[in-house]
Automatic annotation (TrEMBL), chain A:
<dbReference type="InterPro" id="IPR052262">
    <property type="entry name" value="E2F-SERTA_domain_protein"/>
</dbReference>
<dbReference type="GO" id="GO:0005634">
    <property type="term" value="C:nucleus"/>
</dbReference>
<dbReference type="GO" id="GO:0051301">
    <property type="term" value="P:cell division"/>
</dbReference>
<keyword id="KW-0132">Cell division</keyword>
<dbReference type="InterPro" id="IPR009263">
    <property type="entry name" value="SERTA_dom"/>
</dbReference>
<keyword id="KW-0131">Cell cycle</keyword>
<dbReference type="Pfam" id="PF06031">
    <property type="entry name" value="SERTA"/>
</dbReference>
<feature type="domain" description="SERTA">
    <location>
        <begin position="54"/>
        <end position="101"/>
    </location>
</feature>
<protein>
    <submittedName>
        <fullName>Cell division cycle-associated protein 4 isoform X2</fullName>
    </submittedName>
</protein>
TrEMBL record, chain B:
<dbReference type="InterPro" id="IPR018067">
    <property type="entry name" value="PP2A_PR55_CS"/>
</dbReference>
<protein>
    <recommendedName>
        <fullName>Serine/threonine-protein phosphatase 2A 55 kDa regulatory subunit B</fullName>
    </recommendedName>
</protein>
<dbReference type="GO" id="GO:0019888">
    <property type="term" value="F:protein phosphatase regulator activity"/>
</dbReference>
<keyword id="KW-0853">WD repeat</keyword>
<keyword id="KW-0677">Repeat</keyword>
<dbReference type="InterPro" id="IPR015943">
    <property type="entry name" value="WD40/YVTN_repeat-like_dom_sf"/>
</dbReference>
<comment type="similarity">
    <text>Belongs to the phosphatase 2A regulatory subunit B family.</text>
</comment>
<dbReference type="InterPro" id="IPR000009">
    <property type="entry name" value="PP2A_PR55"/>
</dbReference>
<dbReference type="GO" id="GO:0000159">
    <property type="term" value="C:protein phosphatase type 2A complex"/>
</dbReference>
């Protein structure tokens, strides 16, 4: 389990804990609008939609899922089944948000600058060597996070959302994952996810591809992608979070270096063998 | 009472028999049991743990003096099956945790089992040695070589009894065939081949050949971006050596016939229950992911376990299961929390009893559940040290969902989610069960009158 058991092993002793509130919010939502005889508290979407907090809950779920995709044990290869299930959940939420038009709302407020596309793509890939070349992402952390927090109300889930929002950079300038068409949010999200996978598979198209042309690409597969970057493998759980929130260019440079170092390391092994 | 046939609550009372493992409050990670399996006669019980060790218990012969007690299981052999490894290319560790153990049927005096971690399957031979040769000519009893000049007579070495020694030796190592993590192994009924399944591929092996395996299922998409489904479990049919099933993270089961084609990417049968639209939520897919699939002993049914239910399917009916049992439906309203703390990804296993009339699976708070398919009764029992007096009858437990909690009930919010029973095993012909609770192995038997 990722989260620690704070008070012994009781999961829900602290009534004010975010998870408990999420559960009760889901439950409360349904009770207000519950159809007669409906047992399932998790509830139908129809039941939720009229509840004001539904969007908030859904957003937290999205944030939580994105955090989960990134923060995995880097020492051991992560569980592919878990990653796939979480990624599918993220896609599901995004699809619904697109259909709802909520997706558009968020984009409008960010006035074409950052988008949740970038939330996903940039977070997961903000340390890839390709991105370092652009060099535009990192300074934007603080401004985006502020916008993001404005969208959501400052309430009990703020802990969870703060973590996620801090990770989302804003990139006003052109970016590898720039949306060509703001209307096609859904397609673009999918495209971003795809681009994540693709970018990771061809980690550095110029030199690396030549070096690894004989190597089975499956080594750099979905599992690596979904859990973050190859370059993060040496970082622990806390390090990743800290580096996200430190918001300095030096951070990005050092990660660029660690990328290159790792590349050297790999080349060394190949050459020696 | 006929052994192996259970009629719950009326005839079967489960009693504590034994518990293996330490009572320490702090659990060493390496001691956490990760798999439990009886052999085909039930004489041996094997466990694998996170530290890569295998411990085999053997049932002692029942003595005529103790008719009220069935044979106890005592440690027979312990060995280190897998060691941690490091994948230099990916800079990642390969865990030594034993994911599965499967026994081979006994064909001679030795016992054989397959054990696997995420990447490598090993065939172990466990054999007894109770005699040793004595009276060599060229060396003395300590093993030191004798000076040939001092040898004046010749003698024939004889075998003399010695203290029983149980040796485990690795006979085959089946490596480098899996890019992804192995989740299942299954011995074929031909006893010549077996399969190993990882997240995206299933390979067929011959026991004698370790440097080659035959890929029989490959669901890896050409474009990894399109990956939305993985293989979660696989098993051979118990009687038909050409048939096997595998389950997926989307709650589907595919039955394949190896005679149809070399690569069994196209299934022969496809089992899926239509989704209940009223129950739909963002967690629907996750809780539908199948964590275990098991053929019945008869080969007529398959049982699947997903997060909240156990289902029994008739091989002849693909569009829905014939039976569905709720394991812990009270968790349905807690799915968000369980997603947050990752418990929703716990992989529970399920088992049949010897006669396929009762099925068993684990839950949280060290609870485990049994469902009688004939009487439709079910019972919740607990594996805990408090109920560990010899031959103490286990009291049924109950979780109360809301409102007034009765005296012996436990409320959903008080459940301990770190105490999960993922692995259980049922003796092939008797009512003896082994339940793994973190680092302890509990053995329960039905009450012998």
């Amino acid at each position: 389990m990722e989260t620690d058991d704070r008070e012994g092993n009781r999961m829900w002793e602290e009534d004010s804990s975010p998870k408990h509130l999420l559960d009760t919010m889901f439950a409360r939502g349904i009770k207000r609008k519950c159809f007669d005889g409906e047992e399932d508290i998790e509830g139908t979407l129809a039941g939720f939609k009229s509840v004001p907090s539904y969007n908030l809950q859904r957003q937290s779920l999205l944030d939580m899922s994105l955090v989960k995709l990134q923060l995995c044990h880097m020492l051991v290869e992560p569980n592919l089944c878990r990653s796939v299930l979480i990624a599918n959940t993220v896609r599901q939420i995004q699809e619904e948000m697109t259909q709802d038009g909520t997706w558009q709302v968020i984009n409008a407020q960010n006035t074409g600058q950052a988008s949740l596309d970038r939330l996903v793509s940039s977070d997961i890939l903000c340390r890839s060597t390709k991105e370092q070349g652009e060099g535009k992402l990192v300074p934007s952390y603080s401004s985006f996070s502020k916008d993001f927090e404005d969208i959501q109300s400052q309430d009990i889930i703020s802990d969870l959302s703060t973590v996620a929002s801090v990770q989302a950079p804003r990139n006003p300038q052109s970016n590898v994952w720039e949306m060509e068409n703001p209307q096609e949010n859904r397609g673009n999200f999918q495209k971003s996810l795809d681009q994540i996978f693709e970018t990771l598979e061809n980690k550095n198209p110029n030199s690396v591809e030549d070096l690894f042309s004989d190597v089975d690409n499956s080594y750099y597969d979905l599992d690596t992608v979904l859990t973050g970057m190859m370059s993060n493998t040496k970082m622990g759980h806390c390090d990743v979070l800290e580096s996200f929130s430190s918001q300095t260019t030096t951070n990005s440079n050092s990660n660029c270096k660690s990328d290159i170092n790792e590349l050297d390391h790999i080349v060394e092994i190949l050459v020696e063998s | 009472m006929i052994p192996g046939i259970g009629n719950l609550t009326q005839d079967t009372l489960w009693c504590f028999s034994q518990v293996k493992g330490t009572i320490d409050i702090g659990v060493t990670e390496a001691d956490i049991i990760s798999t439990v399996e009886f052999n085909h006669t039930g004489e041996l019980l094997a466990t694998g743990d996170k530290g890569g060790r295998v411990v085999i218990f053997q049932r002692e012969q029942e003595s005529k003096n103790q008719l009220h007690r069935r044979g106890e299981y005592n440690v027979y052999s312990t060995f280190q099956s897998h060691e941690p490894e490091f994948d230099y290319l990916k800079s990642l560790e390969i865990e030594e945790k034993i994911n599965k153990i499967r026994w081979l049927p006994q064909q001679n005096a030795a016992y054989f089992l397959l054990s696997t971690n995420d990447k490598t399957v090993k065939l172990w031979k466990v054999s007894e040695r109770d005699k040793r040769p004595e009276g060599y000519n060229l060396k003395d009893e300590d093993g030191r070589l004798r000076d040939p000049a001092t040898i004046t007579t010749l003698r024939v070495p004889v075998l003399r009894p010695m203290d029983l020694m149980v040796e485990a030796t690795p006979r085959r190592v089946f490596a480098n065939a899996h890019t992804y993590h192995i989740n299942s192994i299954s011995v074929n009924s031909d006893y010549e081949t077996y399969m190993s399944a990882d997240d995206l591929r299933i390979n067929l092996w011959n026991f004698e050949i370790t440097n080659q395996s035959f890929n029989i299922v490959d669901i890896k998409p050409a474009n990894m971006e399109e990956l939305t489904e993985v293989i979660t479990a696989a098993e051979f049919h118990p009687l038909h050596c050409n048939t096997f099933v595998y389950s997926s993270s989307k709650g589907t089961i595919r039955l394949c016939d190896m005679r149809a084609s070399a690569l069994c990417d196209r299934h022969t049968k496809f089992f899926e229950e239509p989704e209940d639209p009223s129950n739909r939520s963002f967690f629907s897919e996750i809780i539908s992911s199948i964590s275990d699939v098991k053929f019945s002993h008869s080969g007529r049914y398959i049982m699947t376990r997903d997060y909240l239910t156990v289902k029994v399917w008739d091989l002849n009916m693909e569009n829905r299961p014939i039976e569905t049992y709720q394991v812990h439906d009270y968790l349905r309203s807690k799915l968000c929390s369980l997603y947050e703390n990752d418990c929703i990804f716990d992989k529970f296993e399920c088992v049949w009893n010897g006669s396929d009339s009762v099925i068993m699976t684990g839950s949280y708070n060290n609870f485990f559940r049994m469902f009688d398919r004939n009487t439709k009764r079910d019972v919740t029992l607990e594996a805990s040290r408090e109920n560990s007096k010899p031959r103490a009858i286990l009291k049924p437990r109950k979780v109360c969902v809301g409102g007034k909690r009765r005296k012996d009930e436990i409320s959903v919010d008080s459940l301990d989610f770190s105490k999960k029973i993922l692995h259980t095993a049922w003796h092939p012909s008797e009512n003896i069960i082994a339940v793994a609770a973190t680092n302890n192995l509990y053995i329960f038997q039905d009450k012998v009158n």
